Amino acid sequence: MKFRAEMTEVVCMKQFSNIIEILSKFTKHCTIRICHDNIYFIILDDSCMGEHPFVWCVLEQANFFRRYVMVGLNQEFNEIFLEFEPDMMSKSLNFLKASQSAESMTVKLTNKNSPCLTFEIRLTSPTLARMCVQDIPVIVIPHKEWNSFVQPKLPDFDMVLAALTIEGLNDSLIRMDKNHIKQTFGVKIALPSMKFLRNVIERMKTLDNQVHVTASTNGTLVFKVETIMADMATHFKELSVINDQTGSSQKTVSARVDIKKLLDFLSSDQLNPRMVTCNIAHHKMIELTLNSQDVDLHYVLPSIDR
């Protein structure tokens, strides 16, 4: 197996560092799937739909790398699966977010007594040029375990709530191809901004570790926590109902999810998303999707029964 890729755009290096930092908040261990056209970051969680991923992040390699060479397991299975610690990688790349001196970054699969992803970052200044090398230990995942990291098949969702930032809703919803998770839904409702929602949920976190999310076709969205001492709810009313294909007069769907995991996702707005959607399968799960120009992040939260 062989992998070597080079970035030369500062914006791409910072965005890559942001992605790894966000993943480090989700888990201690992450899998990177390296393919010819895309790079996937996959996180498994036994509590979320059994063996299926609960985080599925897709990067189109052409948007990040100037040079990209990879040779997989063999001609039939031309992919590479590696497990790594995102926190270690994030700390190694953290300085890229503030640095203006990074000229290029090369990442390659190496063997230094054990498999590693080696980052070679070339730094320049008016008087000095130097190379910073970071080795991130990885575990090569054997082919027999690849089925655990397949693209998840999610149920049909009863409702999707969408938040736009730059592009129109229709253009963003159409932007689904073979690399993206597909599902159907009957209702589309406008969603408040991620930053505003994060402030609301952070206050609720002081009361409980679970939040009940309810949405209805009349344009109402409710976040609620319930405790023995008190209940707290935030109601968003008269949100735009963009499309309703259910044919019913009114429909309400809800799911109760882990509040900390929801906050982890809401902190990923540093990726500058063009669109964020919240797909709700009644009493089953919530799937949160972030779409930016160069990355798609899918985050699945199972519904929790009291």
From TrEMBL:
InterPro entries: DNA_clamp_sf, HUS1, HUS1/Mec3. GO terms for cellular component: checkpoint clamp complex; nucleolus; site of double-strand break. This is Checkpoint protein. Keywords: Nucleus. It is found in: Nucleus. Signal peptide: none annotated. It comes from the Eukaryota. The keyword Nucleus applies. Belongs to the HUS1 family. It holds the Pfam family Hus1. GO terms for biological process: double-strand break repair via homologous recombination; meiotic DNA integrity checkpoint signaling; mitotic DNA replication checkpoint signaling; mitotic intra-S DNA damage checkpoint signaling; nucleotide-excision repair; telomere maintenance. Its main location: nucleus.
